[in-house]
Amino acid sequence: MRTSAERSVRQLAHVTRKGNRGRALVIVDSMGRERIIMGGPIPEPAGARIAPSTGLAIRDTAGAERFGMGLFPDGRFVMGFDAPPGAGDDRNRERITILADQRGGAHIRFLDRRTAVRGYLMLGDDNNVYLQLMGDSASKRFVRRIGVFGDTTASTAR
Questions:
Q1: How many C-alpha atoms does 98 have within 13 Å on its Cβ side?
Q2: 20 to 30 Å CA-CA from 2: which of 19, 45, 99, 116?
Q3: Is residue 64 packed enough to be buried (19+ CB in 10 Å), middle (13-18) or exposed (0-12)?
Q4: Which residues have CB under 8 Å from 52's CB, separation 6+?
Q5: DSSP state of 52
Q6: Cα dist. 75→14, 51, 96, 153 in Å?
Q7: What is the pLDDT, as a whole number, of residue 6?
Q8: Angle 121-123-124 (CA atoms, 0-180°, nearest 5)?
Q9: Domain boundaries in the chain?
Q10: What gap in Å lies between CA 140 and CA 71, rounded to an integer?
Q11: Of residues 92 and 13, more confidently modeled
């Protein structure tokens, strides 16, 4: 005799084999708020992203996106982790970006609360991993790149 959990799993497997097809799935919370949006492409207003992507977006209870990931038409796969609204410059709330690019490269990018790039952990074109840090003084922009075969520091006028 099967337990109710075993029967539920068998029923779910049957539905899955039949196949539910669609272009998007929106998961709402108990209050009816859209919390998880999946799609091919993700349904959203034109211009909301740099290009339409097949992926997933997770929103907080206020409806602000806090996480998104997508496969773009040019072959990039990107994950973005966002700060809540009001925790910096709201023009770009993304703070961490993880990317696997179309040429086989990869990086993790860090943005500050003013949306400036402050660092990367990256796979270089030479297949070595680098830590790149950026900072600003009153008159210069500094970039330090740390790698297994040496470090470089450069500055440019702001």
A1: 6
A2: 19
A3: middle
A4: 41, 42, 72, 73
A5: -
A6: 33, 12, 20, 32
A7: 47
A8: 115
A9: 24-59, 74-158
A10: 36
A11: 92
